[in-house]
Amino acid sequence: MSNSNVSETTSTLGRTRRRVSTVLFGSDPEPGSKAIVSLGLVLIAVTIALFLVQPIFVSYGLFAFLLVVAVGWFTYQAATARLLTLIATTSTVLTIGFITFYLFYSAWPAITENGPALVTLPDYGWFFFLDAVLPVDGSYYNPAGGAVSLIPFFWGTLVVTFIAALVAAPLGVLGALFISEVAGARLRAVIKPGVEVLAGIPSIVYGFIGFTILNTFVQDTFLTDGATFLIAGLVVGIMALPTVVSVSEDALSSVPSSMGDGAVAMGATKWQTMKSISVPAAFSGISAAIILGLGRAIGETMAVAAILAGGTQFADPLFDIFHANMTLTSMIAIQYGNASQSLEHVLFVAGVILFVIVASMSIVSQYIERRLDKKLKGQA
Amino acid sequence: MSEGYATEETFTTADADAYDRWLDTTIAVGILGFVLAMAAVGQVVTLTASGDALNGVFLTLSAVVTGAVGLTAGLAALNVVAVESRRVRGVGLGLLAATLLLTAVVYATGVQLVTLFGLVLLVDSVSLVGAGIASWTGSVDTQPNASAGILTGSVFALVGFGIGAAVGGAFLDGPLYLVAGLLGAALFGVGTIVPREDIGSTLPTAAVTAVFAAVILTGAIGPDWQWLPEGLSGGFSGVIVVPLFVLFGSLFTSWSAAKCRARFGARGRQYGAFLVIYLNAVMMVAVMVSIVFFVVSRGVTYAFHGVQIGALSLLVLLAPLLVLAINRARNPSGTSEWHSAARQSFRIAPVAAIGSLAVVLVGLIVTGETLDYAFEYTVLGDGREEVPIDTVAAITPETAVGAWVLAFPTLILAVYFFRNASSLRGVGTRSPTLERVQQAVPLVGTGLALATIAYVLVGTGFPVLVTVGTGLVVAGAAAAAGATLFALSALTSGPEGLLDNAQYVPVGLAGGVTLLAVTAFLEPTVTVSPGVGPIDIVPAVALLGVLVGAVVAVAAAVARNRGGDDRVFVSQALLGLSAVCGFLTILGLHAAFTGAPVDLGVATVANVGSFDWPFVMQSYVPLGIEPGGIYPAVIGTVWLVVGASTFAIPLGVGAAVFLTEYIEQGSFTAVVETATNALWSTPSVVFGLFGAALLIPRLGDQRSLLAGMLVLGFMLLPLVLITSREAIKSVPDEYRDASAALGVSRWETIRSVVLPAAMPGVITGVILGVGRIAGETAPLILVLGSTLNTPNAADVLGNFQLLSSAPFVFNGAVMESTAALPTGIWATIAAGVSGSQSRGWGTALVLLLVVLMLYSIGIVSRTYFRRKLNYE
User: Fold this and answer.
1) Which residues of A touch B663 (CB under 8 A)?
2) Taking chain A, what is the end-to-end CA distance rounded to the nearest angstrom?
3) Which of residues 656-675 of B touch A (CB under 8 A)?
4) Residue B760: is the preceding peptide bond cis (ω within 30°)?
């Protein structure tokens, strides 16, 4: 190893250390404050560790931490305040870390026990090839009998989300166009908060509405005994609508007005401007909105649980939109209460799948939004 | 932008000819069909309705349309509102004509709704054919493009495929229906794209509408029609298919007619597209309104059974509304022209309404009559059937005012008046007395507050402590009285005194209110049996304060009316009013804390009796005839929200401060941002799993209120963080720079400049976030459990224990499972037939009210503060 390499390594180390120190203590810490900040950091770490390992003794750590903060407040107030906000900031990262860890940790026994059987169909291997040859009475999910394939519920989630997307995407984009381009200022001032309020209606209320219309409305109109993917999808679509509307509206209104002015200057009508300038410019933002809306739809629990109830049969044929079984979310809500230890682990696997799907959708939509931002700023 | 649209303006207001009126009416028929079809989808009217049932529906519809169009037209004619656009006028008149005509048809022939739908579609179709051909032959002046366009063509190709496949499926065997579908697609696609735009965008629409009309009129698809696709477990019935046909037929018709109306070309496309966008918006609003309306209509009887309120309490609750209405009425209104008088009457209408309502209420008190409304609500009987029970909602002539009913509105008003008064710092001269009062008030207040804390911790185990405490209360009240009277001394030398000793008013009144408030909090901690002997000094001083505040307010108002330095007098009047409200709040708090009613001669302030809402204020009664209410669930939800907020708000705001104020954009912030957004989008049920895996094993191994609070807190965290960060970011950098230029340290700047400026935004974000988590259900099922009909509410305040060993502080109530509003609804669903649906609806209504109230408060405050920020 050459000398220059070593010095490079040490300088990288030095830079990293400086960067960490800046995050922890700030760029110019008060002299003497480092000790109390370090002590506070150590104590809060100890408190969290105590909570994880020996929760009964968490008070000792907490009281010690509070004492240090109290002392710090009267001696180095600025540094202590900074320390507290730093701890608050790390809490979000810690939370997402803990969620990831504990989901996988609790799902692990089920994964080791059942292996690929969790995501395959028994006796048939992977499900993609099997559209035509599915057995009618096959039992994919029967924890007592040892069959724990999550495929039926995965499929349920997929169908419900697909129907929801058919409702939410076109209506949502039209709604966003209305708010951002068509409506006058006064109408916008009423409709925009209205959409927000629509987003605020709790999902259990939608669920209760869905639950009560099953036996009358749905039997009349869709000729089934009640619960269907179709109704669940429609309800979830209405629920995802506000997310799509407000996020695409943000994307549309972030298109610089100079672009629209240019089109108007060319003699284009408002609709031509919308169709050929605003929507293409905001296209990636609109797709991010749809992805976010789909994320909401996938994670939606109570409405789906109330409408679809607790069926475990796989849809047959696959595109039977009048079928009803649980989705990944509703199976957790419905079954967790009276699940055996091993079934609980299986439910955690469902949670892991959900978490991974939705988190990656969120990351993708963030990436798209950031790119849109950069693009529009570059042009403005 | 405005230049580009100027021509459009003249275009829409240009005179309309017969062709235009015809198309306006066609658009109106399309809109009418759209609305009726939505009503049929929602089963507000059934397809088979005819005769009296349908007559009633159409009579209502005509009344609504006549009223709406008539009022608007009248106001437009009188120049009160401006309706310039010929198109809007035309469509409005068309709506009126079409509605009246259809109503006449329904009355005359007694047709079924389904036949009427067919007829409407047929009329649409014929009208469009006429419009298209008139344009094509050149009888009217239009500017059509060479083709209707690829986009329109593909939409119609899709529709054509559907029609072809459906017809093929009905008459042909096997996969031939696909061939028929492709044939239909080709026909419609070519028919749309190839001809000139005026034919290409009217005839295909007319054809689609005609096909819909034909299948409906011939009865091929009627209300009894059913289609059960092979292999599927359900199918479609005519009950839903016919309205959907009408919905789409009407949408297409309106779109086509709009294109014709704007004479095709670029303008035609714009009008058509905008009409579709408008109809979509109307549909969204209709869905939202009907969801809320549906829940209200189902739950209102159960939720409001047996509600009673005293007339005087209602009067008190009217006070904040009155202030709002007065504020609205104060806005200046236009010119001296006569129609500005009409506008002015709209401004003062709320004041007038409140005035008349108040007189009615006073009338109730004077005559001793009760205003009541009798109705019935249904409960679940023994045999799982819904049994109706008679109940009544009433306004009683009671003159008792509930303690909290008094305290809440007056507190809001006190804060409102106080915020609107400007600080009188530096006005008038400073006398030594003023200095002394200004120094004494904080000292006495702190002393009393410390005493309160001491009494909470120590309790009143020894008799001597009670005596000392009583003495402290008397001393505090006396000090408050002294401070209040000090404010009065500004009045002794008339208006000059008010100006010269301007600061006596704020210092004295604020000091009095503060001291008495602290005393009121001290009171319940020291009295064993409240309301004995000298304890009543607190309400006495409060009444004195009300009097003094009123005198100050009146004096300042009179001084202002006589002319003088306006701003000082206005502020003093506002401060006087604020003090009146503040002292009334303390009066309410006194009654609430001690439980002793305060008799004011004409009225009493009491803890119970003036307001009764059984559904919210009673627990479940297991074996009663009436099953009581959901008090435990309401309390549970309140504690969940309080706990989650206490946990999440400091963390969220702290993190927002750190990210915006302490650190540059970099890899650390990127990680935090990604984590926050991931938390925001994590499904709620996953939070529940997380709580079940991490929290429950560490919190006594059972579902508990504490676990619910923490899990909801984790969900609230990203919401608070994101909104607070935005609020802090929106504080202008000039504020920070100015503070730094004065040599203020970074932390001092954050504490006394940035955070106060960002506070409104932060509070708004918190309210909206709380509204969101208040209705969360899925995580609570996992970590809190869901129980039907809980008889006992969680008593969190009464269960704190200090222990000598770890964990030192323990609360039995938060370590147990309890009820909450959303889990109560879920329990009703999960219970199936043994759950009372009417009770579920009542719970859903209360939950919806709570959430919507939080949302509207949040949104209104955001609008208010945003506007303020923009004006400043």
Assistant:
1) 22-23
2) 50
3) 657-659, 661-663, 668, 671-672, 674-675
4) no
Q: How many residues does chain B have?
A: 872
Task: Go through the domains of chain A in sequence order and give each one's CATH number.
Answer: 29-113 (no CATH), 127-379 (1.10.3720.10)
Interatomic CA distance for residues B671 and B679, integer angstroms: 12
Q: Are strands A147-148 and A141-142 parallel, antiparallel or unpaired?
A: antiparallel
Provide the phi-psi class of A147: left if phi over 0, else alpha when psi is between -120 and 50, else beta.
beta
Q: What's the pLDDT tens digit per position in B137-174?
A: 988 888 888 888 888 999 999 999 999 988 888 887 77
- Which residue type, as a one-letter code, is found at position B743? G
Instruction: Give the E-state strand segments of chain A in sequence order.
Output: 141-142, 147-148
Residue A125 has pLDDT above 70, yes or no: no
pLDDT band at B13 (very low <50, low <70, confident <90, very high): low
Name chain B contacts of A174, Cβ cutoff 8 Å.
276-277, 280-281
Is 70 exceeded by the pLDDT of residue A139?
A: no
Residue B606 main-chain phi, psi, to 5 deg: -135, 160
Whether residue B844 and residue A301 make contact (CB cut-off 8 A), yes or no, is: no
Q: How far is A77 from chain B (nearest CA, A)?
A: 8
Residue with tokens 């696609």: B189
3.50.30.10, 1.10.3720.10, 3.40.50.300, 3.90.550.10: CATH of B631-792+806-871: 1.10.3720.10
pLDDT beyond 60 at B530: no
Asked if the Cβ–Cβ distance from A261 to B1 is below 8 Å, we say yes
CB B678 within 8 A of CB A96: yes
Q: Do residues B644 and B780 touch, judged by C-beta distance below 8 A?
A: no
Contact between B844 and A267 using a beta-carbon 8 Å cutoff: no
**Which residue, B776, B638, B783, is CA-closest to B716?**
B776
B714 in A contact zone (CB under 8 Å): yes
- Give the Å distances, CA to CA, from B492 to A256, B135, B549, B551, B619: 63, 86, 15, 12, 55
Could you tell me where the beta strands, DSSP code E, fall in B519-595? none
Could B685 and A241 be called an inter-chain contact, meaning their C-beta atoms sit closer than 8 Å? no
The pair of structure tokens assigned to A170 is 């076109």
pLDDT band at B7 (very low <50, low <70, confident <90, very high): very low
| Residue B810: band (very low, low, confident or very high) from pLDDT cuts 50, 70, 90 | confident
Tell me if B688 and A221 make a contact (CB, 8 A cut-off).
no
Task: Judge whether B686 and A351 are in contact, CB under 8 Å.
Answer: yes
Which chain A residues are Cβ-neighbours of B748 within 8 angstroms? Answer: 78
CA pair distance B272, B255, nearest whole angstrom:
5
Q: Residues 115-134, chain A: which have Cβ within 8 Å of B?
A: none
Q: Is A339 exposed, middle or buried (0-12, 13-18, 19+ CB in 10 A)?
A: middle
Which CA distances in Å does B639 have to B692, B712, B793, B828? 20, 11, 11, 22
**Whether residue A185 has pLDDT greater than 60:** yes
Residue A204 is predicted with a pLDDT of 93
Give just the sign of the alpha carbon dihedral B49, B53, B55, B61.
negative
Residue B320 C-alpha from the chain's centroid: 17
Instruction: Using alpha carbons, select from B195, B21, B157 the residue that is nearest to residue B96.
Output: B21
**Above pLDDT 70, what percent of chain A?**
91
What's the rounded Cα separation, in Å, for the pair B19 and B153? 26
Tokens 């001032």 sit on residue: A189
Question: How many contacts, defined by CB atoms under 8 Å, are there between A and B?
Answer: 333
Of B668, B806, B809, the CB nearest to A56: B806
Query: Chain B residues with CB inside 8 Å of A320's CB?
Result: 231-233
Asked whether the predicted pLDDT for residue B10 surpasses 60, the reply is no
Contact across the interface for B651 and A88, Cβ inside 8 Å: yes
Axis crossing angle, helix A203-213 with helix A229-253, rounded to the nearest 10: 140
